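Usage

Read records sequentially. Each one opens with the input sequence:
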Amino acid sequence: MQSDSRIGEKLGLTLALLLAGSAAAAEPSLVAAAASLRHVFPELTRAWTAVGGARPEVSFGSSGNLYRQIVQGAPFEIFLSADEAQALDLVRAGRTDGEGTVYGVGRLALLVPRHSRLALDPSLGDLADALDDGRLRRLAIPNPAHAPYGRAAREALAGTGLWPQLEDRLLLAENAAQAVQFALARGADGGLVPWALVLAERVASEAPHVLLDANLHRPIAQRMVLLAPADADARSLYRFLAGAKARAIFERSGFAAP
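and closes with the structure output:
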């Protein structure tokens, strides 16, 4: 018959293992998300935790910078990119489980702070007049070097013939969310930013905006991928984000269905 002390040791060891297992299960899923999703994730998280999911740990940034972090070994488990090409690069490099899915299609908006005299012109025709009459000093956009919405802004400005004239008047933001901050600042007269971000209540109440004509830039397909190190919890979260409930949230937040 075992002694009481031996039984106590076994019970203690069992409890320690159970606690360790609980701690491991409680580890949050690590998610890398494009800055254009910053206002969407609180609602996604509420919907996920309402069905019993654990709150994920989300890092926001430009898709290009997040992609580089993943390539360099950052331990993210899910990547929601605003740049479909970079998500597919990870697929081709064998860093994902499957090809992922397009969770939404983005559009650009012209955001005009209340101190600005720019017109809410979806064709951007007023920007040329504003350059001539001095109403346009600075325009904020995400940096095209690593932000897909920045590339879309450059495409829209180039298509209207404004890019050469505006290139030295641009405030280049590190990511889409920062571009909104720049556009609202006193030093800017407006910005070309994700439509999804200007729908956020705080921004919508602070400055008017207009959705750009759809033919000014190519649709911005945003793809998410499940990264190879993902554990079971992350896989469950990924399935939720690809499901109908999350799709409805994305659509309400300014991302068209694929």
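Summary fields computed downstream for this record:
- Confidence is low (pLDDT under 50) at residues 1-24.
- The CA atoms of residues 122 and 138 lie 18 Å apart.
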